[in-house]
Fold each of these.
Amino acid sequence: DPERDTAELLKSYMANFDPSFVALRPTPEQLPQVAKDFKIYFKKVEGKTPTSYTLDHSAGSFTFDPQGRVRLYNRYGSGAQALAEDVKILLK
């Protein structure tokens, strides 16, 4: 959410996973193209007040190769076993 997710907030959030992780933070103008490029769904859902909106969105993680290419998309909730099997295939 480019309106609420500041660079500082995202840096703190990503550090919960690994301090070397970097969050992607497009501008509101860049967001539609980034979502299209990564095949991600998002939609702003208005709340009862202007600041109480939510964002519906895809949930998952990407695995990149050393050249920075997306090699794997892991849907949220797929489980560790499914991810491990996919990574094994990539490593062959």
Amino acid sequence: MVSNLVNAIDYLKENGYFIYTADMDGEDYKHVDYAPKKVLVVGSEGNGVSQVVRKNSDVIVSLPMVGKINSLNASVSAGILLYEMGTYGRN
């Protein structure tokens, strides 16, 4: 747990990490090239992520929704994205 997420993101970026943030209007997660050193930021289910976190992220990724489903809960989204990042992000 950190007291300031933007400071933590800056620290991670300084140490070579690429920051991916999950939000509804990002790039399709299947079409993103994932870096070897990566961090996934997932916002709250009600509010998502703040604008300042979005601004400090390297890439905004999203899960495309089909049909009547317009979003998934944060834990489901995180699980899908972490699997994708781990499977296809290796060098």
Amino acid sequence: MSATAPQPSNSDSSSSSIAIRQARDEDATAIRLLVTQALLAADLDVPTAEADTDLIETGYYREPGRGMWVAVEDERIIGCAAIDLGEDGHATLRRLAGVSLANLTAAAVAFSQGRGYRGVETVLPTAMTEAREAVTAEGFLNDATANDLLFRRTL
């Protein structure tokens, strides 16, 4: 797989040539690049080796209750999403970046349902428009009473 990640497009891609699969160790560089690009585009801090070790060693997401997926087109990683352990029986959707976000979100939700989570939560800044649209389309609701960045979906 190529470690080069493209610039995210302004719209979600639904091309039949895009495949969603579980992330592999060799995808780590492309995933880090996608996440970094998404954070920079949202005017947020870039990941650091100390705070974001899950982006250095994707094996973190092979631990029980966790998972990570990538969108692949023409052998290039073009999108990613991850599920992490949350609180009170909920999963946390993280690392939603790149394209094919609707399909990646659906994979993360299906994984969470299969693991018996009660719900899925994610925090998305307002500048991450495509990610917000993808989670909303997948049934997440913005919980503005708790935090206008928080989206939740009951399973």
